[in-house]
Amino acid sequence: MTAIVRLENVAAEVGGRRLLSDVDLRVDAGEFVALLGPNGAGKSTLIRMLLGLHPVAAGRITVLDRLPAQARQDVGYLPQRRRFDPDLRVRASDLVRLGLDGNHWGFPLPFKRNRTAAERVSEVIELVAATAFADRPIGELSGGEQQRILIAQALVRRPQLLLLDEPLDSLDLPTQSSIAALLSDICTNQEVSIVMVAHDVNPIMSYLDRIAYLASGKAVVGTPAEVITGPTLSALYGTPIEVLHAADGSLVVVGQPEPPAVHSDRHHSDGHHHEYDRDPRRPHSH
């Protein structure tokens, strides 16, 4: 099987501080891999390293058998989620078109009117089930609709690898589930490999091939059943960790209280589920 991404003994530093050491990770064609861990563990930094936008402190990264910066044309990227201004009048389909006619990161160049480009934009909009609202201004769309359009933009150049930085953040639970299912379909049917930063593993758990859990400057890689366990996470954090199975089938990771802990509701209350930001040394709930 072809290795789309390969990390060998990789270390990451930010501001002279070592975030990660000795990370080994392989992502094969069509695989769905999640990067998990507490805030400050290096998840977004690792995504930037895969894009060639952050230097490797040690070890080696290859993307499509090339250095990351050389592979960007074959990589789709969706940065951390942002809301568009409600007054923004750009049509959703035009935003997708920017991913094709602008540079790889979506900055606009004058459109080249041609049938092939228009057909590809329509094709990828249909792929993400966004045809019904593609002609509406992007600012008028719901959070889930906007995210589908941004995924379409990232896919429009037919990338072999899709890098997503917390694409489910701030979405309600039903929308998280639908976007997670969409991403799984893209992996399976389009043979696009996905590496996704996630705050909560539960919406994507059933779709994942593997997890890379980052904490305490290290990474543990394996299937969800191998990684999200009390013994594995206890060894990673160096403190007792318990993994609880909630009545709805979701997982909750519980660590020993370690003040100071800062708790802030990350999402609007939906009556069912809450996420919290914690001290960077402590695990999230999953």
Walk me through the structure:
The model is unreliable at 103-111 and 256-285 (pLDDT under 50). The relative contact order is 0.16. The two termini are 31 Å apart. By secondary structure, the protein is of the alpha/beta class. The chain is globular. The longest helix has 18 residues, at 173-190. The strands form 3 sheets. It has a 6-stranded mixed sheet, sandwiched between helices. Helix 2 (92-101) packs parallel to helix 4 and helix 3 packs across helix 4 (143-155). It is built from 7 helices and 11 strands.
Q: Which characteristics define this entry?
A:
single chain; 286 residues; alpha/beta; Rossmann fold; six-stranded mixed sheet; three-stranded antiparallel sheet; 7 helices; 24% strand; globular; disordered C terminus
Secondary structure layout plus pairing:
Layout: E1 3-14, E2 17-28, E3 32-36, H1 43-50, E4 58-63, E5 75-78, H2 92-101, H3 115-127, H4 143-155, E6 161-165, H5 173-190, E7 193-197, E8 210-215, E9 218-222, H6 224-227, H7 230-237, E10 241-245, E11 251-255
Parallel strand pairs: 3-7, 3-8, 5-6, 6-7
Antiparallel strand pairs: 1-2, 1-4, 8-9, 10-11
Helix pairs in contact: 2-3, 2-4, 3-4
Tell me the total number of β-strands. 11
Total helical elements: 7
Order of helices and strands: EEEHEEHHHEHEEEHHEE
| Tally of structural domains | 1
Share in helix: 25-40%
Straight-line N-to-C gap: 31 Å
The profile of the biggest β sheet is: 6 strands, mixed
Q: Spell out the CATH superfamily.
A: P-loop containing nucleotide triphosphate hydrolases
Stated plainly, the CATH topology is called: Rossmann fold
What is the gyration radius calculated from CA atoms? 19 Å
Q: Which of globular, elongated, flat, extended, rod-shaped describes the shape?
A: globular
With strands numbered from the N-terminus, the spatial order across the biggest sheet is: 5-6-7-3-8-9
Question: Residue ranges: pLDDT <50 for 5 or more in a row?
Answer: 103-111, 256-285
Beta strand %: 15-25%
